[in-house]
Amino acid sequence: MSFNTSRRARASVGIAALAVVGLAACGGSSSTEESGAAMDTTDYSKWCDMKSELQGKTVSIYTSIVTPEDAPHKESYKEFEECTGITIKYEGDKDFEKNLPQRAQSGNLPDIAFIPQPGLLATMADTGKMVPAPESTAKMVDEHFGEDWKKYGTVGDTFFAAPLGANVKSYVWYSPKTFTDKGYEVPETWDDLMTLTEKIAADDSSAKPWCAGFGSGTATGWPGTDWLEDTLLRTADAETYDKWVAHEIPFNDPKVAEALGEDAKILKESKYVNGGFGDVKSIATTTFQDGGQPILKNKCYMHRQASFYAANWPKGTKVAEDGDVWAFYLPSNGEEKPVLGGGEFVAAFRDAPEVKAFQTFLASPDWANAKAKATTSGGWVSANKGLDPKNLVSPLDQQSAEILQDPKAVFRFDGSDMMPSAVGAGTFWSEMTNWINGQDDKTTLDNIEKSWPSS
Fold first, then answer.
1. 435 and which of 78, 192, 350, 444 could share a cystine (Cβ 3.0–4.6 Å)?
2. What is the per-residue pLDDT for 49?
3. What's the alpha-carbon Rg for the chain, to the nearest Å?
4. SS3 at position 301
């Protein structure tokens, strides 16, 4: 049904109201309502009154999030669908990153795409087919997300995409029971971490302080890029990291070399790795999924890997602070808390009231909390400050939310995801694999620098 002038005006009012009060006015409670602040539902009721006009409207989603992770997504949209009469059509694709640009060329674009890399977001913006985010979405992001997150959804001077989910990569997995039995404490600084590493190596000849795995099929090497990125945020600072990612300083800058040298002190030291698998070179052939498993067999003590690694522990493993495994924040020597992570961004390719409304809903605390409640098995978190960690099922997800919401947190997106694909998903992966196989630091960084596209 096409909108006349009056209806278009009403749609604009509805979208703006959605940004203010959220979908909770449909029958649930919003964070504003719970805080005791006055909440005007008049404008929102106008939006809900449009259900008769929006009934039958469809918003299509295209994403790399496939079964079984797609089920809680679909569940989290139900309140929106019931309130507005809009139907959400969900399409998951494991080859999303490859197929989305091809769909832009063929003209077969979805209404909304969940894009997991800022680099790909920029590529899609260059097609000229991506629609800037509406003001209501921008206001929602300004209120409920940090400036860093909005920046990653911006291309040039245009804000296109609000954040969706998030993950924390700055984690070290360990066994709480083993630490307690050995009298080890979770390190609070990088220096403490290195001291602990040395002590474990001296105390236990039958295990290693660390285990690691860089293997990931055609993407082998990416866990190594995370190591370098996380360490650079700690040995240098966020400004240096940003310049490095944008190639405003060369890939082989002395500060980057210093960070890789710190990684070498752990990953290329035979007395520290690779617990349960073999020598240093075994890291290249050990898959990232298998990388941390020797912790359960007391073959290694620590494994640096993201929050999503929780899904890789065997069924029945208790992931908790007093459980079989848990994860602590990868510490820094500074007062700030650098956090390396990733996530998805909501990009639109059709300019329509129903699309704008859905974009704004996805940026709201209402959706973040609905998604948390729908994710009954855990494994999901958002950087939305309106997300109540209590609604997250997994203790690790709760901890991740608290890390992301910490005022001292300085979040930076995975660097390889923002670099040109020839580097970020190319030489950076392959050269880190060569590095763990014995290639020296300088050659590794020099080779990646030489591969950076000239334009």
1. 444
2. 65
3. 23
4. strand
- Cα–Cα dist 387/145, whole Å: 10
| Distance between CA atoms of residues 23 and 112, nearest Å | 19
pLDDT at 2: 28
What residues have CB less than 8 Å from 381, skipping those under 6 apart?
A: 165, 166, 167, 168, 307, 372, 387, 392, 397, 400, 401, 404
- pLDDT of 237: 93
Q: Specify whether the CB–CB gap between 96 and 62 falls below 8 A.
A: yes
Please say whether the beta carbons of 424 and 245 come within 8 A. Answer: no
Question: Which residue from 328, 329, 354, 358 is spatially nearest to 346, judged by alpha carbons?
Answer: 358
DSSP state of 85: -
In this predicted model, what pLDDT tens digit does every residue of 33-77 receive, in sequence order? 333 333 222 233 445 667 777 789 999 999 999 888 899 999 999
Peptide bond preceding 163 in cis form (omega within 30 of 0): no
Confidence at residue 234, expressed as pLDDT on a 0 to 100 scale: 97
Q: How many CA atoms lie within 13 A of 400 on its CB side?
A: 35
Tell me the CA distances in angstroms from 452 to 12, 252, 449, one per residue in order: 45, 11, 5
Q: Strand, helix or coil at 54?
A: helix
The C-alpha atoms of residue 119 and residue 61 are separated, in whole angstroms, by 20
Closest to 143 (Cα-Cα) out of 414, 403, 368: 368
Supply the pLDDT for residue 26.
53
Both tokens of residue 408?
Answer: 């001292």
Query: What per-residue confidence (pLDDT) applies to 209?
Result: 98
Burial of 391 (0-12, 13-18, 19+ CB in 10 A): middle
Rounded CA separation 230/232 (Å): 6
Q: Specify the amino acid at residue 50.
A: M
| Residues of the chain predicted below pLDDT 70 | 1-49, 455
285 Cβ neighbours under 8 A, 6+ residues apart: 215
User: What does the alpha-carbon distance between residue 416 and residue 56 come to, in Å, rounded to a whole number?
Assistant: 41
pLDDT value of residue 38: 31
The predicted structure's pLDDT at residue 148: 84
CA distance to 115, 316, 348, per residue, from 134 (Å): 18, 45, 10
